[in-house]
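User: Hi! I have a protein structure encoded as tokens and I'd like to know what sequence might fold into it. I'm fairly new to this, so please keep things simple.
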């Protein structure tokens, strides 16, 4: 699928030596492969991944993040030799660029040729039909539930970028596919890379151990200037235009509270070991108000409440020349913490704990961890928390769009789908969102259109 994402990828090298790839015997392979009754094809693929020193990878979505993830997979420090064997993207220029960049960095590890580079809206199917053992899913997130479900059906191990969906039906689909992955013992990792960073791991361990007492509230931020925008080409169908500018359309992006701010929301979910039970908030468009800005807001502010009463105050904003911050703070009975900096303070603002690790290299470390776990037979499945943290962001978006206080269980069960992406097969298909007569797009109006966003 299309991945016109130009966000820069992180390229880091791990200096520490990690465990070499372990060749597993027949007994170990059987213990960590599919359960009885699952397709024998999955068993064969699982055995192949864990019984040799090479993993064949396929890439679905060749934008900046997909290219970055492929690079980091091939650059993993686990001792596993990762090769890129197949790619797919809607746009040929993206696929070609990804192959060129990966080849420049990794040479013969890139095995893609004319027969294994697939262009078009159905290219992802051909990657899943190939003999790759693990797929990287890095298309815009509106397609993630479909691709994840079909990858698990095909018996593939999965690394999928966040967020993992854009609406409640998509999240339910991901949760169901995640359970199927458990049955098949297919590894699943989600690109919420902060969970793989020692800075966060160490400070969260301290907070959960009670270093500042009961955790009363948290503040999380993703405030910056915003992202790219691409002009409409005279030859674009409406669907092509939206695929090129996917960030500005909810059916494929979910708004920036979902696409970006999910990282900060996930950190607090991780810290709390739970997910919010309700949310209310406000948002709108003040700066990005043109036709090119699609239908999304440029700011959201949400109050989330957890079952234990903890409040998370969430702020995300895309506005130039304003205060920028991408970070998280937590306040407890006896102090506070700045999570991204790895520092904890007492009530007198004195540092009482500081993490040893200073870097944020999670994009690389998550792949090191994934292939180390595969090599060792340590089964990992991050689909559930990836889906629920994604839904945390979706719940916030629906709260700001509707102006209502929303309940997690009700919205997850009842909120409507934004698009049936299964039926999008060619560029002439109608886009799920159509422009108004003046070329602009309908914008959510809190308090007036709640039913549109909450229940069909």
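Assistant: Happy to help. Inverse folding works backwards from shape to sequence: for each of the 456 positions I chose a residue that suits the local structure. Here it is:
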């Amino acid at each position: 699928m299309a991945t016109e994402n130009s966000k820069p990828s992180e390229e880091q090298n791990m200096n520490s030596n990690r465990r070499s790839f372990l060749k597993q015997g027949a007994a170990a392979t059987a213990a960590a492969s599919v359960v009885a009754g699952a397709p024998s094809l999955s068993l064969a693929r699982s055995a192949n991944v864990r019984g040799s020193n090479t993993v064949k990878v396929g890439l679905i979505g060749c934008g900046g993040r997909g290219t970055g993830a492929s690079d980091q997979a091939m650059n993993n420090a686990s001792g596993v030799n990762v090769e890129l064997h197949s790619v797919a993207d809607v746009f040929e220029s993206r696929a070609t660029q990804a192959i060129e960049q990966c080849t420049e960095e990794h040479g013969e590890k890139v095995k893609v040729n004319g027969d294994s580079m697939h262009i078009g809206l159905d290219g992802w199917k051909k990657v899943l039909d190939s003999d790759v053992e693990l797929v990287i899913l890095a298309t815009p997130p509106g397609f993630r539930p479909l691709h994840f479900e079909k990858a698990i059906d095909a018996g593939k191990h999965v690394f999928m970028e966040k967020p993992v969906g854009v609406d409640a039906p998509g999240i339910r689909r991901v949760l169901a596919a995640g359970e199927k992955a458990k049955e098949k013992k297919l590894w699943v990792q989600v690109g919420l890379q902060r969970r793989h960073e020692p800075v966060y791991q160490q400070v969260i361990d301290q907070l959960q151990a009670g270093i500042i007492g009961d955790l009363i509230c948290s503040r999380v931020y993703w405030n910056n200037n915003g992202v790219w925008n691409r002009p409409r080409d005279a030859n674009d169908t409406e669907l092509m235009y939206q695929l090129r500018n996917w960030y500005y359309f909810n059916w494929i992006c979910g708004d920036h509270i979902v696409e970006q701010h999910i990282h900060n929301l996930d950190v607090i979910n991780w810290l709390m070991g739970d997910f919010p039970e309700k949310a209310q908030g406000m948002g709108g468009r003040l700066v990005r108000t043109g036709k090119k800005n699609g239908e999304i807001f440029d700011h959201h502010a949400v109050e989330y409440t957890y079952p234990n009463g903890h409040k998370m105050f969430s702020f995300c904003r895309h506005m130039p020349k304003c205060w920028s911050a991408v970070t998280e703070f937590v306040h407890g009975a006896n102090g506070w913490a700045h999570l991204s900096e790895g520092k904890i303070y007492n009530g007198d603002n004195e540092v009482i704990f500081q993490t040893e690790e200073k870097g944020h290299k999670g994009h690389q470390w998550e792949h090191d961890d994934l292939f180390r776990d595969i090599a060792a037979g340590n089964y990992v499945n991050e689909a559930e928390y990836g889906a629920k943290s994604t839904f945390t962001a979706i719940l916030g978006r629906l709260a700001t769009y509707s102006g209502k206080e929303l309940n997690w269980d009700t919205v997850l069960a009842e909120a409507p789908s934004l698009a049936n992406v299964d039926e999008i097969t060619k560029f002439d298909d109608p886009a799920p969102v159509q422009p108004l007569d003046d070329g602009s797009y309908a914008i959510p109006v809190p308090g007036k259109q709640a039913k549109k966003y909450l229940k069909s």
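A useful reference point when you look it over: The CA atoms of residues 134 and 157 lie 4 Å apart. Feel free to ask if any position seems puzzling.
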